[in-house]
Design goal:
elongated; alpha+beta
């Protein structure tokens, strides 16, 4: 049972990282993700191409710096696929992805000729599962290319 729970937890933590893009305008030719620049504030002139969303792998309790970097990397990859040379960040942070819990219950009854004992007990616990997430707008900035 313990082995099964370990495999289940690993599967939950490793899965479902990824990204998506919803086009707002026709896509441009794809570029290398290394050419995509991240913007926290909008540049003076740009064209919106797509709305982007990306997540990292899961962690217990809170995201990590590595997870945030992974989510940003995935955002840049999605932008590059639609030919954007920039990503205007709209959200960055932890996203709840459920929780994992474990419960153990048991009871025992024993007796002998001189005494009687009965016992019952339960132990349970849980931990939230969190992913780092990033959202943004894939943009094309004319002077960047």
């Amino acid at each position: 049972m313990r082995c099964f729970l370990s495999v289940l937890a690993l599967g939950l933590l490793a899965g479902c990282a990824g990204g998506s893009a919803r086009l707002l305008a026709p896509a441009r030719p794809a570029i290398n993700a290394a050419e995509v620049r991240v913007y926290r504030f909008a540049p003076t002139h740009y064209q919106e191409i797509a709305v982007l969303d990306a997540t990292s792998g899961a962690h217990f309790y809170h995201g990590t710096a590595e997870g945030e970097a992974d989510a940003l990397r995935r955002l840049k990859e999605e932008a590059a696929r639609v030919g954007a040379n920039g990503v205007l960040i709209t959200a960055l942070g932890d996203r709840s992805s459920g929780s994992i819990g474990v419960g153990v219950a048991g009871g025992a009854v024993s007796s002998d000729r001189h005494s009687f004992q009965a016992g019952e007990g339960a132990v349970s616990g849980g931990a939230p599962i969190v992913r780092n997430g990033a959202a943004g707008i894939a943009i094309y900035v004319p002077h960047e290319r």
